[in-house]
């Protein structure tokens, strides 16, 4: 299995073979499977409309993200202290451990490659329900829903 920073490097290398001019640009965006093997899975994601993933985990899979176009943010789930939001533009990458909980915000027009290792088995979605933090399991091929109540509880704008 790959370490988070190795996933980011794989995403960067995969970006070298993407022709941005050939991508269909209709609707809210979509996902294209680039590869899947016993060590990793990679997705090319187009975000023609702004998209907040909500707080989620990758069920033990590390992730590396490379930004081909636009801007995205990555934020871990803060428990106390100052929020730590990283912003990334075209040509930049970041990674996140398989044990983490995070959310991403994509500006309209963002294009990213995500490499997960080991391949995603599931995604856990987080939200505040009746005053408690709840994790709802999801399929690895489903989009993560926003977490409006959790964002409000954390004071995330």
Automatic annotation (TrEMBL):
Residues 136-157 are annotated as: Disordered. It comes from the Bacteria. This is Cysteine dioxygenase. It comes from Nonomuraea guangzhouensis.
């Amino acid at each position: 299995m790959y370490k988070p920073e190795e996933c980011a490097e794989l995403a960067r290398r995969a970006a070298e073979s993407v022709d941005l001019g050939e991508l269909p640009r209709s609707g809210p965006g979509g996902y294209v499977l680039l590869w899947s093997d016993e060590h990793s899975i990679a997705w090319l994601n187009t975000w023609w409309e702004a998209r907040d993933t909500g707080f989620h985990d990758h069920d033990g899979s590390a992730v590396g993200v490379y930004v081909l176009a636009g801007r995205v943010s990555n934020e871990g789930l803060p428990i106390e202290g100052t929020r730590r939001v990283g912003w990334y533009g075209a040509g930049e990458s970041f990674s996140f451990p398989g044990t983490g909980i995070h959310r991403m915000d994509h500006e309209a027009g963002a294009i990213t490659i995500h490499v997960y290792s080991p391949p995603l088995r599931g995604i856990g979605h987080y939200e505040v329900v009746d005053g408690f933090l709840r994790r709802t399991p999801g399929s690895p091929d489903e989009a993560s829903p926003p977490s409006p109540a959790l964002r409000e509880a954390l004071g995330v704008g």
